[in-house]
Structure formats: structure tokens, C-alpha cells
Amino acid sequence: MHLLTIISSTIILFLSFNGIHCNKELDVNSLQQIIDHLTDASKQKIFQSLFLASSDEGRQDNSNWCCSIDPGVEASSRTRQTTYYIQRHARNKCGYSSCGLFGWSSCTKWCDNYWSEVQYGVETYMVYEARICPATNLVCCAGYITVINHCFSYQEVMNNKDVLEILVAMGIPINPTMG
Known about the structure:
- By secondary structure, the protein is of the alpha+beta class.
- It is built from 5 helices and 7 strands; from the N terminus they run H-H-H-E-E-E-E-E-E-H-H-E.
- The chain has helices spanning 2-17, 25-36, 40-51, 154-159, 161-169, and strands at residues 65-67, 73-99, 105-130, 138-140, 144-147, 150-153, 177-178.
- The strands form 3 sheets. Strands 6-5-7 form a 3-stranded antiparallel sheet. It has a two-stranded antiparallel sheet with strand order 1-4. It has a two-stranded antiparallel sheet with strand order 2-3.
- Strand 5 and strand 6 form a beta hairpin.
- Helix 1 (2-17) runs antiparallel to helix 2 and helix 1 runs parallel beside helix 3 (40-51).
């Protein structure tokens, strides 16, 4: 109930600060009655719409916003340092052994050695990032209507038609456009 009083007072203050005056007490009372029957979520949307109409803050929620153009994808190359191990092998003399007829000769004895070596390198790779849609190309997605710089579903607009009509009658432009 406290939120309702704040919203009602805020709307009336907003209207008077912007030089919008109602000639009929009936308009203010009708608006108050409609606001009284709104859900808290609807009240919050109207509050935000009135005070954020000149900014792009309504566009922060991208669930209902689409881009009228394909902004494309930006490809950029990047590098990174890599560390890897290589297995090495070597054969070397490790002594002599008896060999030949009756073991009267000597033969070289070979031993196998295995070890790992650390190697460092630089690797180049591609990164693909979607470009951001320019603000001038942001539009409401199909099935949504732009009202005061916010995208609302057709059902939301129809459910709040009375409030929107009163706002228009009071001189507040809502500039609806279909997505």
C-alpha cells in the first residue's frame, strides 16, 4: 500500500513538474482508481516508464528487444603462450660385453635413455564475438509493442489500456510502435 501512495504521488508530481495540469478532478481520481487495481509489477513498470523514458535503461533487459539489422560477427586473432612436454629418447654406450666365438671378443653394450623436455611456444587462435546492435537499430521483437521506450506484449498493453489512455489525455506521449 505504501508503494501505491509513492507511485500515485510521484505521477502527480511528475505531471505538475512537467507543466501538465489536469483540468478535471475526475481524471486524477480515475487514474488513482486504476493505479489502485494494478499489480505491483505493473506499478513498477509504469513508474520506470515515466522516469526512464528519455534514457536507454529500458533497453537493458534484452528479452523483448531485437535488432533491425544483422550486426554481424567480429573475428580477431589472439595469441597465448603454451607449455608442452616432449618425450626424448637416446641410445648411448654404457659398457662392453663378451661376444664372438667362445666369448673371446668384446662388443659395445648400448643403453636406452628416456626423458621429458619442457618446450615453450606461442599459439595464435581466432576469437569470434557478436557485434552489439547499434541503439538506433533496436526495435521490439515480433509480438511486442514499444511504449515509452519499453517493449510490452500486446496483452500487457491491452490490460493497461485505461491507464495509457489517461496518460495520453493528460499530454504524456507514449509513442507506441509495433515490433
